[in-house]
């Protein structure tokens, strides 16, 4: 993949809001939301999916115990 194509893909990812990114690239979604929360930009974070992921983590932890 050429440099210009990678740059175009990266720009599309940057233009996605946090909720859209959840469906496309989970790892990037997680990084972006962590950055938003750490910087106090909670209104921009994907709170519904964040809450869902936290609940899922709790369920997995309970199964391990």
Description:
By secondary structure, the chain is mostly helical. The protein has one domain. Helices cover 78% and strands 0% of the residues. The protein contains 4 helices and no strands. It has helices at residues 3-15, 18-24, 26-38, 47-64. The model has no long low-confidence stretch (mean pLDDT 85).
Strand-helix topology:
Blueprint: H1 3-15, H2 18-24, H3 26-38, H4 47-64
Helix pairs in contact: 2-3
Q: What percent of residues adopt helix (DSSP H or I)?
A: over 70%
Number of domains: 1
* Stretches with pLDDT under 50, minimum 5 residues: none
**Morphology call:** extended
Overall mean pLDDT: 85
Largest sheet: none
Topology as a string of helices (H) and strands (E): HHHH
Distinctive features:
65 residues; 78% helix
In brief, what are we looking at here?
The chain is mainly α and 65 residues long.
């Amino acid at each position: 993949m050429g440099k210009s194509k990678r740059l175009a893909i990266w720009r599309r990812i940057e233009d996605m809001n946090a909720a859209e990114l959840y469906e496309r690239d989970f790892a990037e979604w997680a990084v972006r939301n962590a950055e938003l929360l750490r910087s106090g930009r909670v209104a921009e974070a994907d709170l519904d999916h964040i809450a869902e992921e936290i609940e899922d983590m709790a369920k997995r932890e309970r199964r391990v115990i």
